[in-house]
């Protein structure tokens, strides 16, 4: 597995929106030419139902080009990614907000049906040739933020309320407090614990990316709870800067990467840091280069970009996909050259 190759600079890109094999072949060559050595492939519920054999071929094609593969649980339990089709079969497994409203597209992580469904998905991923699972930003939803904390949060379904009462000895309050925040973190971590134990039993690598921000049930300050799981080998985050006020992409990515790496070192975990290549306004493409430099300067050696050609196949694509993709390729080239130069200098010093 890639984390056993200490000198390797892992450069990955997310790829989705296409299942036509002749176009995949062209795109894979383009990915190689832009200095990547890893592709993160989505494997959604729709892919499971409609593209299972096609995805097996896509994984084989990707590996045939010398590229490593991570398989993403895209939309399995809802955003990020597709809406959860699972909920059509188990309507009692929705996340529920503290005000009693139901989230229409997100599955409750404490639902035993959803956990069983996730394990079935893992089995299918193994069957199509997946060796490494990328757990993509699983989170609990929230809204009505105030001072960085949600006023309305999930999950407050009857199941979660009962579990909260059992753990703390009183009813879950309607307003976020320390115990509710603790329970939300526990829910995310316990879901990870169960499903990653299953994938590890299949000799699969487990990688997770955690969303930044207090509304998601877990953030970099509480990432230690996830790092304590021995079933997860690689813990990362996505310090996306666009849309944030008063931040410089280099500074923001550098500081966020340092914090992520400090926790990973503490627990002996590998890392993954994501660079924002989507939603890039015209004229700001060079920020992708600055951010990639920042992640490398902070010590990251597993650096990935969302996504292929500035996520051209999505409504949230870069405004000028050609320019964004050019900047992404230049960013990967720069850190590749720096990495090779660093290895060469290090070996020369050892020889002397």
UniProtKB/TrEMBL annotation:
Domain of life: Bacteria
Protein known as: Uncharacterized protein
Native organism: Paenibacillus hemerocallicola
